[in-house]
Every structure is written in C-alpha cells, then in structure tokens.
Amino acid sequence: xxxxxxxxxxxxxxxxxxxxxxxxxxxxxxxxxxxxxxxxxxxxxxxxxxxxxxxxxxxxxxxxxxxxxxxxxxxxxxxxxxxxxxxxxxxxxxxxxxxxxxxxxxxxxxxxxxxxxxxxxxxxxxxxxxxxxxxxxxxxxxxxxxxxxxxxxxxxxxxxxxxxxxxxxxxxxxxxxxxxxxxxxxxxxxxxxxxxxxxxxxxxxxxxxxxxxxxxxxxxxxxxxxxxxxxxxxxxxxxxxxxxxxxxxxxxxxxxxxxxxxxxxxxxxxxxxxxxxxxxxxxxxxxxxxxxxxxxxxxxxxxxxxxxxxxxxxxxxxxxxxxxxxxxxxxxxxxxxxxxxxxxxxxxxxxxxxxxxxxxxxxxxxxxxxxxxxxxxxxxxxxxxxxxxxxxxxxxxxxxxxxxxxxxxxxxxxxxxxxxxxxxxxx
Amino acid sequence: xxxxxxxxxxxxxxxxxxxxxxxxxxxxxxxxxxxxxxxxxxxxxxxxxxxxxxxxxxxxxxxxxxxxxxxxxxxxxxxxxxxxxxxxxxxxxxxxxxxxxxxxxxxx
Lengths: 427, 108
What we know:
Chain A is of the alpha/beta class. Chain A has 15 helices and 13 strands. Chain A folds into three domains: 83-110 and 216-388, Rossmann fold; 113-213, Rossmann fold (3-Layer(aba) Sandwich); 395-427, no CATH class.
C-alpha cells in the first residue's frame, strides 16, 4: 500500500511533514490536506518545451510532472483540449483578448475530470486497490466509471439522489455500481470518508485525493503551451471543491520555476453559482475560512456547500489580486446560451456559471478588455440538458412541400418581428 | 443527559481504538474539555495551539454540520449523535493496516 519514488512524495501543506507515497489525503498530525511535492531540480532538463512537443497529443506529454508510478504506461489519450480564441463572445461582453479552454470535449467522458481520474487510477493500481470509487456530482462519476472499466477495476460510485438523469446513465453504462444517496453532495462526501474508513477501496477524491488533484495541473500546462508558452493575464475558473483553480496556479508556478515561460503574476478569478457560493462569499468577505452553505442551484456539478479546498482557494485568489463572483440560475442558463450562440460550444451548467461570471468581471471593470483572459470550461452541455428545459420549442412538423416551408418561415418571421420592433423601442 | 460520540479510525488511535463512547458534555467546548481529561492524546491531536478545534475537523450533530446549528453555542440534547470527521479524510482503512506496519511510526 505504498511505493517509493525519488521524484515526488506527499507533503503536508501546513506543517511540512513528508509521508512518501501512499493512499493518504490528510496529515495525521494537523489534518491539513497533503500535496504532491516534486523534486523540480530532478526534472529540469527533462521537462522541456522540446521534450513536451515530442510527446503525445494528450496530458501524458507532461508526465514528468505528474505523479505517475514507475511502470505504469498510460495509453488513454486524455486532455489536450482546444484553446479557442473567443472573438464572438468577446464582442458581446466587451473583451478583445478572450480565450476559452474547452474541456467540454475532454476524452473520454467530456469533462476535465478525465484528467484527474487518469492520474488517480494510475496510483490506485500501484497501491493495489481492486475497487475504486468516488463521491461525485456527476462528471467525476462518469469518468471513474469509464476509466475503471478500461483498466479492469471494479467501481462503486456514490452520488446525490437528485443528480441529472444523463449523469446517472453515463455512469451506469460502463458497468459501475452506482449508489444514489438521499442527501446533497456534502452528505455523500461525508459518507465516503466513513466508507474509506471501513473498506479497502481507492476513492479517487478521498484517500487518493492528492494524486487525483495533480491531474488538474494539465489544464494549466496546456493553456501555457497553447498560448505559445506564455501565461495569460487572467484565469476565470469554476469552483466546486476549490482544487482546480489552485492547481492551474501550481502548474504556472512550476513552468516559471523550470524556465518554460517568462515569470508573470497571473490573476485568478473564481466562479460559483449564487445558490452555492461559499468560496466566492469568503473571497468577497476577505475570510480565510469557509462558512458552509446548503446548495440550491441548477449548477449541480458545482454544488459543494463545504468545499475541501475552499479556504486555500479563497486565500490564493486574493493573493493573486483576483476576485470571485457568483451568478443566479437565470444567468447560468444565459451563460450556456451565450457561449453556444457565439462560439458554438455547448457547455453544462458549470460552464454557464463561468461564462456569466466572465461577462460580469468585464462589466464591473475587474478585467480590462485587452488583457489575455482564459475562461475555463469544464464540462459538456449534453449532460445537463434539463437545465434548458422550456427554453426552446421544437416547432410544428411542417409538410415536406416548398410552399409549406415558405409559409412556415413567414409565420416564424411574423412572430419575431413585433418582438424585434419592441426591443428597438425599448432601446 | 447523554450523547453518543463517534470518531473516525484516524482519531481512534488516541482512544485505544474506541470509536464510540458516551459523554454528558453540554456542548462542543464541553466535549473538548472532556477530551482533556479523558483522552489527552486525542485532545492534543484535535486542538490547535489556541486550544480550539483544528479548522480541518468538522463536527456533525445528528448528521448536521454544527456550524449550521450555531457552532460552540449549540446545546447538545439527550440522545444526540456527535461525529468528528476530518474535512479532508481518507487513508483511514489503510492507516489501520499501517498501524501494524511501518506507517505506525509516522503516526507517533
């Protein structure tokens, strides 16, 4: 249940104690989260632009700075998702240098969770676990189920009972055992900590958490490489547990330390739904702690009322000169539609949160229009179509005749013209 | 009045592997004071240098986070079930193994 490695090991972020490599997420002395610490000098000369460019077009091109046990040969082409210049969205929200990092098309299960799970399961194998699991708001469940199937591991996945139907189906289809819990994510997560206490299972976001979280760094590496080995001025990132935003910063710091990019003080902006905004609230109040909330939002993938990395995320955001915002469910749906209509990207509710928060940050002048800003989209809209229920009418079935089609179009135009005229008057 | 206190394996190492016990503490500060006399090693582990419960440990009363109930001011009632759980837990099952393996040294 442990392996040795001289390139990285677990270390307590608070008291600094080292724990080697083992399935352990919190320091036994002070209960602070453990982090994977690398010997950066050992990878200097290995983790270079040239070596990375020669690697595969997926996250494994950054393997030298991921906690992958020796002997594990990853073959799943995870990540390396598009970084798109978002000129159209930029025009709508008043931004001239806006990019979208599109993990809505991450392989294999269409969310950034594929990155963290691939790193976690590599370690689950090394530690000898034959059953893996997670507490999940959906995307993680999908990814653990899919990747466990491929690796031949049994999976037991716990989710809140009210999860979107698509996310439940997208877990069960891989043959995973799915357990719906009558409670919210925080209840599920607490139960998982108790299960991990009694069962010898590898929970990717419980006892494998430090390894799992490192996978998020690849979002940061990719952004820097795709910008031509430059760091952006700003990152806008959704926050659930608060881990991703911190790991993107860790990735940037490592790139600076190893000389792959010029040093730059990147500002980090966190995005949450108002119906579950403990980290955003802490940032706005200047707190170094989190007041837990009872989630009530359509952005279920961000609905963590008691986020594990929340205090650290809030502190980090303020340190970088960034900020956090939260938006209503109505704004979330608008954000989904704006991104789809302008850039052709259909994101889930979390992406609606990020897009709406990005728009607000420009509107409030927290981000200047010409700064290089990356909005991080973490999941796919096909999984949360229920959020758009009632937004669109399928329309009547038109007879397959040109005249009928002409008439139908005229009727549609007639229906929209008065609305347009009214909108013009209102302006 | 009596409440039932439950500890995770990670903390039960300080109570002779006793994971549940009863207490007549009226509230959370009272329970921590009881730890001082009954389980000094547990007390030292769960409290910070200011004598307060470490920020990474959550307390639940009948499945509800005590912060939703008023925190230190919340009065326990007869029959309450009080759980202490690290906010980022995990490794407990394997820790139990490690108690008899090399990891035991790390816990001391």
